[in-house]
Amino acid sequence: MLSDSELRAIWRAADSLSNPGRSFVKALILSGQRGDEVRCLPWAEIDLDRALWLLPAARTKPKRDHEIPLTPAMLALLCDRPQEGGPVFTVDGRKAYAGQQELKAILDRESGVTGWTYHDIRRTVATGMAALNIPQDAIDKVLNHSRGRLAGTYNRHRYLDERRRVLEVWAERVAIIVGDGRDAPNVIELHGAGG
Q1: Where are the alpha helices (DSSP H) in 71-180?
Q2: Which residues 6+ apart lie within 8 Å of 140 measured at CB?
Q3: How many C-alpha atoms does 1 have within 13 Å on its Cβ side?
Q4: What topology is assigned to 4-178 in CATH?
Q5: What pTM did the predictor assign?
Q6: Which of 19, 30, 148, 192 has its CA 20 to 30 Å from the CA of residue 93?
Q7: Per-residue pLDDT for the chain (195 aa), expressed as one digit of tens each?
């Protein structure tokens, strides 16, 4: 897991990079999704009108469809990428970005933060959300973690509004951590976010 100061250093190091590396790192931090789910994201999964990322089961670890609401920060990041119909994070417009190892070495050098992995970003997002008093079941919904068998059988609500609010609060927290935001409350109300 990364501390706030480490996350800030990595974000700021990403600021000095060219795309797609810069946007890829920031998308990991803002979305909390798995590395390859972000890295291989095609434009076909993005619904800009609904501000939604529709991740199909075939591309998820738990093999189930997953809807990720797109916050204004995430939309700004995506809209900064060429919308050519192929992968969002690409160098040539055809293949998904594949420079993560070199990118990691640059981030380590530029940020001064070492000994972390891309998956630590996901852990940091989950822990950061918990520190904001977001209920664990809401965090699990955002991260596409498995629910108990009975909950998944009986409760079919999608919790899309709740997930959107969680990601908005997380994006506000990231803005504060990296120095682009204002102080925000550290408690949010999520009515009916049970899972």
Answers
A1: 72-79, 100-111, 118-131, 136-143, 149-154, 160-178
A2: 146, 147, 195
A3: 9
A4: hpI Integrase; Chain A (1.10.443)
A5: 0.88
A6: 30
A7: 999 999 999 999 999 999 999 999 999 999 999 999 999 999 999 999 999 999 999 999 999 999 999 999 999 999 989 888 899 999 999 999 999 999 999 999 999 999 999 999 999 999 999 999 999 999 999 999 976 554 555 655 778 999 999 999 999 999 999 997 654 444 444 555 444
